[in-house]
Amino acid sequence: MSEEPVGGDLSRLRQLNASAVLRELRGDQPLTLTELSKRTGLSRASTEDVARDLLGRGWLAEVAPALGSVGRPARRYRFNAGAGRLLGVDIGGHKVLALVTDLDGEVLNQTRIAVDPEAGRRERLAVMDRCVTKALTGAGVEAGQIWSTGVATTGLVDGSGKVMLSDSLPEWSGVDLAAHVRRLVPGPVRVENDCKLAALAETWHGVARYAKDVVFLLAGLRTGAGLIIDGKLHRGFANWSGEIGALPAAGWLRAPEHLTAWLETTTRRDASTSVGFESVFIAARAGDQGALQAVRDYVRDLAVGTSALVLTLDPQLVVIGGGFSRSADVMVEPLRRELDRWCLRTPEIRVSAFADEGVALGAVRLALEEVESTITTGLRP
């Protein structure tokens, strides 16, 4: 006979049971105690204890019996997405985007404020402050109602929420984003690289929900990657995973130059903006031979670093996201042909449906991870 868990072992067992019940209730349909017991493998008595505890903590809600039920109806439970609110913030080169959502990621308010790409640290942080305040007001949510906040930024981020290195944003290296955001909203704040969070969004609510091994390409004014390995975001030893673009031979540093060169041969003078680059894809789509060649050259360089990641990870899926994903119709086939040249097996290539909003949604998912961790620590959210 196995020994009964005692002390800390019993506490840990309860936490694992709670996680199992919540995992099953994250679907669309409410479940009875009997159904939960079968799905989790717990006894009915244990399932009832867990459900009672989660009800008291606000994680679950009891569903009213269906009309016309005969006899005593079984109690049904659902995950209570409305119990708390989450905040996700994306701090980019040209904009700050803030999302206020429920615990399922349903967006209650979305606020976007443009920012000068040459803005320094103080100006960019001030724009972020205004964006967060406006998003909370628009959602009718007070700062104290936010259970957790996720923040996405370009650059390398350490475990404390400080930007270690940023080449693309002026005066951004060394910014302690977590500490700054805590002045706006109390509660836990987690900060992560934007490419990684875009990848996380795809496996949560995006086109990669069914895949366990994914290479995410952030294609836009700059190029980056996020890696999902065995269903989990891969950060690496020092949180530097996916930074293959730092290697000049990978081609990502020079890739946008092909698009810029075409723009400089036209009368356009907005080559430094996403709108300017978009005109290259528009012209390519219309059959402009110069634009088509520029896109092919861009994709060829993009494919070098992508092939290296594919050959290393053997992913099930490559997802193209970021601002340029809106023009993926002129990018996917050239990219597939290039991967066919270099890779032993070309994975499926899919296009994100989020465009440049995926990063902010990934920040929401990061915030939710923090909330979900309260189940395994036994703390009240």
CATH-assigned fold name of the largest domain: Nucleotidyltransferase, domain 5
CATH architecture of the largest domain: 2-Layer Sandwich
Count of individual helical segments = 11
What share of the residues does DSSP label as strand, in percent?
Answer: 15-25%
Number of domains: 3
CATH first level of the largest domain: Alpha Beta
How many strands in all? 15
Derived from helix and strand composition plus strand pairing, the structural class reads alpha/beta
Helix content: 40-55%
The end-to-end distance, rounded to whole angstroms, is 37 Å
The biggest beta sheet reads: 5 strands, mixed
Q: Overall pLDDT, averaged?
A: 89
Kindly report the spatial arrangement of strands forming the biggest sheet: 6-5-4-7-10
GO molecular function, one term: kinase activity
Family: Belongs to the ROK (NagC/XylR) family.
Keywords: Kinase, Transferase
Protein name: Putative NBD/HSP70 family sugar kinase
Summarize the entry for a quick read:
This is Putative NBD/HSP70 family sugar kinase. By secondary structure, the protein is of the alpha/beta class.
Walkthrough of the structure:
The structure is a single chain. With 381 residues, the protein is α/β, with parallel strands linked by helices. It has three domains: 8-79, Arc Repressor Mutant, subunit A, CATH 1.10.10; 83-198 and 359-377, Nucleotidyltransferase, domain 5 (2-Layer Sandwich); 210-353, ATPase, nucleotide binding domain (Nucleotidyltransferase, domain 5, 2-Layer Sandwich), CATH 3.30.420.40. Helices cover 40% and strands 19% of the residues. It contains eleven helices and 15 strands. It has helices at 8-25, 33-40, 44-56, 121-139, 177-182, 194-205, 255-264, 274-285, 289-313, 332-342, 358-377; strands at 31-32, 60-63, 76-79, 85-91, 95-101, 107-114, 146-153, 156-157, 163-165, 189-193, 214-219, 223-229, 232-233, 317-321, 348-351. The strands form four sheets. Strands 6-5-4-7-10 form a five-stranded mixed beta sheet. The protein has a five-stranded mixed beta sheet with strand order 13-12-11-14-15, with helices on both faces. A hairpin with a 5-residue loop joins strand 5 and strand 6. Helix 6 crosses helix 11, helix 7 (255-264) packs antiparallel against helix 9 (289-313) and helix 8 crosses helix 9. The chain is globular and about 75 Å long. It starts with 7 loop residues before the first helix and ends with a helix. Residues 1-8 have low confidence and may be disordered. Residues 26-61 form the HTH iclR-type domain. Belongs to the ROK (NagC/XylR) family. Pfam families: HTH_IclR, ROK. This is Putative NBD/HSP70 family sugar kinase. One of its GO terms (molecular function) is kinase activity.
